[in-house]
Amino acid sequence: MIPYESDTFTDDPANCVAIDPATAGRLTGAVRSGLVEVALHGFAHRDNEIAPKGPGSESEFRGLGYSSQLRMLSVGKATLESLCHVSVTTFIPPWNSYDENTLRALADLGFEVVSSSGRTYGIAATGRFQRLRFLPYTCMPGHEREAVEFARNSSDPDPIIVVLLHPFNFVEYDRDRGRFTRQSLDDLLSWLAVQPDVATQTLGGAAKMTRDLSYQRLRTFIARRGRRKGNEPPYFTAQNAEFFFYHSTPHTSGTRAANRGRPILFYFLLTAVTAVLFGLAARLAFSGRVAGSVRRTASCATAGLLGLCIIYVSINALANRAIRRWHWLVLSAMLGLYIGTWAAAIVAGRRGPRRREPLSG
Known about the structure:
TIM Barrel; 2 domains; single chain; 3-stranded parallel β-sheet
């Protein structure tokens, strides 16, 4: 729930309007029965506009100082607890965006669960967040049955599916963006209720049932899934279906260990093939009467180009705090270019025309 309303961003409750008690009261029965969990979904859900405009730049908390975030979270938590008469210990950041100050404030205020897209924004895994438990969403409306089936057929001992749902996902709320109806939600819940190996829980309930929801597990899962732009999960396909449930740590680590050799083999083969192709091309170019200085110049040029690529990739990786696939592709291709050119120059030098000795006698 969003505790305050405001037309623009503010961290001061005096500049906002608190949620209507009658609106909050609609959930009283469901909250008391445990069917619905009240989670804090920001302060007023307004972009602080600190980050430069771009895809995924919106955030209400990321970039603010610790004191501002502490005040917003503290006031929002107290407001919801006063309206709903329950303890609020789960936080769902607006736009799935937060930073280290957010986690510090949440831990200091006694929050227990954080649920977002899973992006970690470069926050290091340290012991300061041990009290917080992390449950990223893994599935969008419409793919719940497929996600359950894939989790059921996996070897993971503790798969968790978290569905992200907004009001605009419902046709009754937004006819343009809505892809879900209230009836389809009822049908889904009825189907889940009769599945013998599926238990439906609130975020807080799932956190209490699961042993490991550490920040390290989150980082491991996100590293396996890879970086991607925006907040939405990838489209459901056979190739990415394994990411529509939250892997337990042993499964994630085991999967990473089993698949770690695949990209290494791919980049090795890419380097080798590139080296062979460019080596053959360079060998043909050096087959004529090419001076040794030209061959050395070609080798030095490719070495310099490889060095420039390494520098560029390093700067780009530091700026993005990650080494991406295209970095490895460029480096592998350039390394193959250098090896092929260097090998061709060596072979051409050894097989070059030799001076014939004059015959004596």
